[in-house]
Amino acid sequence: MQLITFNIGNECYAIDTALVVEIIPLITIRPVVSCRDFIRGVIDYRGTVVPVIDMGLLLEQHPAAKKVSTRILVIRYQPGSQAQRLLGLIAERATGIFHVDSTDIERLETTLARQQFLGGMFNDGDKMVQVIDPQGAVSQALEQALDLPGMPGNDDTEARCAPTADRAD
């Protein structure tokens, strides 16, 4: 299995390269109204409107640093039984590529609230790397939050997410 590694703060994460369409520079993201702070907005990716998630806000509760090395990983995911969609993930220092035997990735039995975002872990020698499972990351709640007006496959005129108590309107 080939994985691309990226950082969020001091933590290292990885995603299967088979899911990555392209890694692009951090370009201008058009904000959209959303009930989730980690949904930063949308980009125009080769004529397709693509929602963008800030992995820093999703995983570590702070935005990814805006540095020259910060990138958007454009990935494919398949929500439920729907057609494949594109999704942008903002990540810091998306530079490393690792070849890892799938038997070296340890599955975690966890009850963390964010467990749906996390796959197994592997050791690259000097640090532990957490694998991200985009299919798990795009949970039903996240899918509803991404189901924004004007998004491909969405014919609704209103976003289908309820306001949260911790978000100022």
SS field, number of helical segments: 3
Determine the strand fraction and express it as a percent band. Answer: 35-45%
Instruction: From the 3D structure, determine the CATH topology of the domain at 16-94.
Output: OB fold (Dihydrolipoamide Acetyltransferase, E2P)
Global mean pLDDT: 77
Counting DSSP E segments of at least 2 residues, the number of strands comes to: 9
Order of helices and strands: EEEEEHEEEEHH
The residue fraction in helices comes out at 10-25%
Rg is 16 Å
Q: Could you list the spans in which at least 5 consecutive residues all have pLDDT below 50?
A: 152-169
**Cα distance spanning the termini:** 43 Å
> What is the overall silhouette?
globular
SSE-based structural type: mainly beta
Largest sheet, in brief, is: 9 strands, mixed
CATH class of the domain at 16-94: Mainly Beta
CATH arch. level architecture of the domain at 16-94: Beta Barrel
CATH superfamily of the domain at 16-94: CheA-289, Domain 4
Could you walk me through the main structural features you see in this protein, from its secondary elements to its overall organization?
With about 170 residues, the protein is mostly beta strands. The protein has a domain at about 15-95: Beta Barrel (OB fold (Dihydrolipoamide Acetyltransferase, E2P)), CATH 2.40.50.180. The chain has helices spanning about 55-60, 135, 140-145; strands spanning about 1-10, 10-15, 20-25, 40-45, 50-55, 70-75, 85-100, 120-125, 130. Strands 1, 2, 3, 4, 5, 6, 7, 8 and 9 form a nine-stranded mixed β-sheet that branches. Mean pLDDT is about 75; it is low at about 150-169.
